[in-house]
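Late entry, flavin-adenine dinucleotide complex.
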Amino acid sequence: MTPADRTVDVVVAGAGYSGLQTARTLVDAGLDVLVLEARDRVGGRVLTEVTPSGAVVDQGGQWIGPTQDRLQALADEYGVSTFPTYLDGANLEVRDGSVHPFIGLVPTSDRDGSADTVATLLDLDLLAQEVSPTHPWDHPDAGALDRITLAEWVESAADTQTARSLVATAALAVFGCGPEELSLLYVLSYAHSGGSMSSLIRTAGGAQERRFTGGAQQMALRLAERLGDRIVLDAPVVSVSYTDGGTGEPAGVMVTAERRGADDGRSSWRVAARRLVVAMPPAVQGRIAFDPPLPGSREQLVQRAPMGSVTKIHAVYDRPFWRDAGLSGQVVADAGMLRATFDDSPEDGSHGILMGFIAGAVDRSSESDGAAGRQRVCLEELARAFGPEAAEPIEFVEQRWSAEPYSRGGPVAGLGPGVLTACGPSLRMPVGPIHWAGTETASVWSGYIEGALESGERAATEVVATLDGTALNRATGLDESSGQ
Ligand SMILES: Cc1cc2nc3c(=O)[nH]c(=O)nc-3n(C[C@H](O)[C@H](O)[C@H](O)COP(=O)(O)OP(=O)(O)OC[C@H]3O[C@@H](n4cnc5c(N)ncnc54)[C@H](O)[C@@H]3O)c2cc1C
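Prediction complete; structure with ligand written out below:
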């Protein structure tokens, strides 16, 4: 076997929030850690960019809500403040092509539909409370709940088309998947991990409550500063060979990453470690070759955990003009390209920004429209809701997550029927010296930044527990100034 170029205690593959939290926890435990990140940046599905006009836009994850305590603690630690999502005034419901103002969570233009939506959401929330966020396959009716889709459940649970349509809009915004793509058991366990479906879709008191002044990537950048040259960017892990220690030799991994040289050519780089933490979604992990092959159940899980499909768009204006008309910037639409929009203006109102999601099947089929075609349709829809001024932004930016090779979609994996009951236990189960992190493995706020942080702590704790005490006594804790 070719010797390693480097030897460490633990390699972490991926420098999203889960990988960064894994590394930080391991370093604090005294371990020698190396993080290999495929992209030329940290943060993964969280990316803050500044447009040419100076507008700060979060292209991926952006919100924080109540009970997301790890993320709040990280923001506090780095002095990053938050501010409430803009909520003043009326939201807009687009139904059958007409626009109706409403106040609160549920659109009201169809009174029966509105009442039915509230009742359906309550049913879903009550059912979710019965399903474990960590072991949903243990539910006595797990088989039945995993056999049907959210769409099938809502077809019988709801009486009105309005309620079915609103549940579909919620699924698209939360998962980047239509309700016909999602196992009911998966939705229930996912919702429970964040409290309830209602807490996932609420702005005030829910997952969309607050935003970060200056963007959601800042804490990842600061964590990376602290980790210093323990993080290697532009180094995608391509293969892993491992031994579980069964043959008498110590358990360990040899991780091969590609690195870009000065001449832009790629070369292989081999890092030997006692443990590996893979901190990315299952579908992205599936592109790494393992020797020996991973167990069949893990392979099957990876093939059955596709990412949702989402494009985030931002239309930037010189001011939030819709506020003059008493509008909050939030739209809920029953059809079209943008099923949900929000006011994403900065706290000081120095720009006006409308943000929207193109999600699920519409996102996939909009590939053929191209960026210009998507922009045209999005602006037509924004103008229908907010008037002709909305058709004339000073900038329009889109982030198409399904075209990102190291994300393959977003915001999260969308599991269809039968996957959790058949392959769910493989989600977190270590394979020899290999451990799994990433928000898809989280037991709280799965799919969210908070879940990514929790999964990193859990994976790091597993690793520490499996290693003997000798390595843990080394005083290699983080030093702010040197990153060493
Ligand atoms: C449009 C959108 C909106 C969202 N909104 C919110 C929100 O408002 N609030 C919220 O809490 N969450 C939100 N999320 C979800 C949130 O962004 C994720 O839950 C979280 O960032 C996941 O972190 P992670 O570390 O688990 O995975 P990732 O962020 O995906 O990190 C995985 C890392 O692994 C790297 N990688 C991939 N392959 C390799 C390889 N072969 N070798 C080495 N590295 C590799 C990737 O480049 C990436 O950096 C949103 C996501 C999207 C896409």
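The two ends are 30 Å apart (CA to CA). Will revisit in the morning.
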